[in-house]
Amino acid sequence: MRLYLELAKKAAQRQLAYRQANLAGLLTNLFFGALRAYVLIALYGLRPEIAGYTLTAAITYTGLTQAILRAVQIFGWQDLMKTVRSGDIASDLAKPFDYYAFWLAQDLGANVVHLIVRGIPIMLVYAVAAPMVWPSDVNAALAFAFSLLLAMLVSFAWRFCVNITALWSADALGFARLGYTLAMFLSGFLIPVTFFPSWLKTVAAWTPFPAMIETPVEIWMGILSGPAVTAALIQQAFWAGVMMLLGRLMLAAGTRKLVIQGG
User: Fold this and answer.
1) pLDDT at position 48 over 50
2) CB 191 within 8 A of CB 146
3) Closest Cα to residue 107, out of 68, 136, 79?
């Protein structure tokens, strides 16, 4: 356990070292968050509510999704895939640690930094610029924090599965782009899943993607409360377990026929 805590710590320190990149990422998130907020403001017009979202809730949704986007990392992660292409995966697999936990620890360590240097400032800017919806009490805030942790686990498990396809395909980047596009749309990042037509909401509900974005956002805003929060957390934990198991099975199958490309 100490090894993985050190890995998480080193990943956090490494992420903190990129000060200009962190600042650029923060400004980019704020810019696109503002664009998304103005699009929703135009959509509402004189309507007080759409699909259960008030305008204030919709603005909060854009701010919160931008704030947690980099921590949840539903797109753009290719670090593991690069080690397959370079051949470094061979030495990593030979080392005396759990390969899956090795990557997970680093991911979580970096995500904590993303929440601090991007998430908190974004929410503060939104709070100054517009009315916001906040957790109703301490229990709701704690439920959101636990849900966000589960969202990170689900997201990592999904990204691990996508990256590990590089053990079979020389063009795994194509799988990654398709996978991350699906995640961005069906997770509720672009628009809330609640806004989807009924058939598409049903499709999304049978995937792990809403557990990455939609669930923690709805807990934060009080759309889910009481027993519904418990059910949502259980569903997130279920998807985290299923996707982690799938990733480990894919890893085991892939390493039995590992062919290093380069390196």
Assistant:
1) yes
2) no
3) 79
Average pLDDT over residues 193-219: 90
Against a cut of 0.85, is the pTM above it?
yes
d(CA 157, CA 233): 16
Q: Is residue 235 within 8 Å of 212, Cβ to Cβ?
A: no
Question: Residue 254 in 3-state DSSP?
Answer: helix
| Sign of the alpha-carbon dihedral angle for 155, 156, 162, 163 | positive
Residue 262 DSSP SS3: coil
Average pLDDT of the segment spanning 203-208: 91
Alpha-carbon dihedral sign for residues 64, 65, 70, 74: positive
Give the closest residue to 37 by CA, choosing from 117, 131, 138.
Answer: 131
Beta-bridged to residue 54, according to DSSP, are 49
Q: What is the pLDDT of residue 258?
A: 57
* 79-86 vs 138-164: helix crossing angle, rounded to 10: 20
Residue type, 174: G
Phi, psi of 48 (to 5 degrees): -80, -20
